[in-house]
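ugh ok fine here u go
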Amino acid sequence: MLEEARVVDNHSYRKNVPEFLGGKKHYPKLIQKVFHGIGKAIDQFQMVEDGDRILVGVSGVDSITLLWLLRERLTWIPVKYTLKAIYINPGFDETTGKIIGDYLRKESFDYEIIKTDIGTKAHEPHAQENPCFLCSQERKKRLFLLAREGNYQKIALGHHLDDINSTLFINILYGSSISTMLPRQDLFGGTLTIIRPLALVGKEQIQKLAEFLNIPPIVNLCPSSQVSQRKQINEFLDYFYRKDQRIRYNIFHAMRNIHRDYLP
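structure:
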């Protein structure tokens, strides 16, 4: 059942501007590289328009890093948009919500935390065949509802290049389909769009940037997090990424380089 949400009403702009702001060229190289990836994805897949109202679904380090990146871009890009962070607490604990809330409040983000029992219900005996799918679907439904109620045109999610690649293999091995997450996905006749601005950025880059920014570590307390299909696929792919970093990008580009004449 949806409980009363905690809302902090403030602006999506930094109050205490750090020294390295003032244009992308003034950022450390680590940050510039990530900005290049996010900018390329936003441009290539036409993710953001002037005046957009964007909900950013936050749940861990990747999505909080995305939120930071989207706000920092506003210091030099000609396009302006509004950001609001949403954390949907799946009901496993209160610690994660406190860590996320404390950080977002300290950094002066506009945010809302919504307490639910989505995660615990997804792990009840009658639903244990695919709890990850059920939990994900229910959280998306909540985000769609919040977007509609708040007149937001876009929902930004923190899935990165590694997530897109692993989803491809999960769907091949367990779903008998060649499909994955889309960098941009229009829904409901184009009235709502899901965007994934980290689609061209690897997990390692995001982790290094999060450490640089002192974003607090967040432990995933979901009971399925250590035994999921995604974890197994990620470990498999990490082996190849360590051998050759190009493989990470080769997999992504292969999805747009289909030779149908050589498929059954």
